[in-house]
Amino acid sequence: MDDDSDPVLVIVDAANVVGSVPDGWWRDRRGAAERLRDRLAADGLPGHPGPTEIVLVVEGAARGVSTVPGVRVESAPGSGDDHIVALVSDATDRRRLVVTADRELRRRVTELGAEVTGPRTVRG
């Protein structure tokens, strides 16, 4: 399925991760997504020392957050969950890890062979 030299594709459900802590994110969804992006760019994926390709999927009011070195940002044209499932489906030749606590999304991506982990993995 995958080549050990390929980086793990880490797909982060920005809305779910940002929404997992009630820190006022709802007042500035885009700013919250940018802070998450910057933390991922600085810290990578804690506990996963190997090479990773990090994709942050944003939706709604957070659309338009820009890509930075180390984190590719994709604005979902519709449902963020559907976009994440499409990314997982398009990368069946490599290891995929989805960061979300959304039960339905977790079910959908594991059916496609992806691994899942919760928001604490990236929230620190």
Main β sheet profile: 5 strands, parallel
Coarse structural class: alpha/beta
Strand order of the largest sheet: 3-2-1-4-5
Number of strands: 5
Structure description:
The chain has 124 residues and is an alpha/beta fold. Helices cover 35% and strands 20% of the residues. The chain has helices spanning 14-18, 29-43, 80-89, 103-111, 120-123; strands at 8-13, 52-58, 71-75, 96-99, 115-117. The protein has a 5-stranded parallel beta sheet with strand order 3-2-1-4-5, sandwiched between helices. α4 (103-111) links the parallel β4 (96-99) and β5. The longest helix is centred in the N-terminal third of the chain and has 15 residues, at 29-43. The termini are far apart. The model has no long low-confidence stretch (mean pLDDT 91).
In short:
This protein is of the alpha/beta class.
Topology (SSEs and partners):
Layout: E1 8-13, H1 14-18, H2 29-43, E2 52-58, E3 71-75, H3 80-89, E4 96-99, H4 103-111, E5 115-117, H5 120-123
Parallel strand pairs: 1-2, 1-4, 2-3, 4-5
Search tags:
124 residues, alpha/beta, five-stranded parallel β-sheet, 5 helices, 5 strands, globular
